[in-house]
Design brief:
The complex is a heterodimer of chains A (138) and B (148).
Chain A (H helix, E strand, L loop, with lengths): L1 H20 L4 H8 L8 H20 L21 H17 L3 H10 L1 H23 L2
Helix pairs in contact in A: 2-4, 5-6
Chain B lengths: L9 H22 L5 H8 L9 H21 L11 H17 L4 H8 L5 H23 L6
The chains are: A mainly alpha (138), B mainly alpha (148).
Chain lengths: 138, 148
Amino acid sequence: MRAHLITLLSGTLFGVGLALSGMMNPARVRGFLDILGNWDPTLVFVMGGAVVAMALAWLLQARMQRPIACDEFSLPGTTRIDSKLLGGGVLFGIGWGLAGLCPGPAIASLATNPGNVIVFIAAMVAGMTLFSFTERNS
Amino acid sequence: MLAMFPHAQPIEGLIGGLLIGLSAAIMLLGAGRIAGVSGMAARVLGLSRSGAPWSIAALFIAGLLLGALVFQEFSAPIEAQYAPSTIAVIAAGLLTGFGTRLGNGCTSGHGVCGMSRFSRRSIIATITFILSGMVTVALVNALGGGWS
């Protein structure tokens, strides 16, 4: 129960952060990727602030036996670099550049601007579903 | 130097970024997990066998919507300009869905949570999708597909 409340708080803060930072504006995100054109460095500040805050959390995490509201940490590995990681990065990057949307801002925009992101979300769900099929058949 | 980029929002960006980092910190220290949006979304959709329990993933995703709604309610309407081409948006969604699953993460999981942990894997992933995005925008602009 406590873990559920904490998770809802985390998601909500994430949504507020996305909205405040300007990252729910695809044109601004695209502006960050447009280094040869009218470059917009805002995303650097967003990523910088988020990474610094989270780096402090990792320092605390290293001293904790277990999380505050559940039994253990469930964390992914940090070292494996393979063709899936790189291929996934390239494909996602192309999508990011085309629409200026990544999953967080797109999902948050369902609440504030549904008409403008529903097509992207439907296609993203289709892409995730397609991946599940290929994974199952391989 | 920022005067060179009059359209930038460094203050809002930094505060928003700190909130995102705080959110990820609460998720890690409270619930023991990575605040990765693509992974949570796949979990909610029943497309991922591993990851957070369904109810945790669903609450995190619901929080994203709630947060944006709260901000809009108590602050200002969220300014947003979208891609002009529906075909491009469909292609982008497909690539984002497939790519984030294949690479096991997006801007939140690899970018925020992984890089701050000095994860070699996440740093490589983040560099890859940023470079790929930059090349894509440059190509689209060169082909006359700029947004303006």
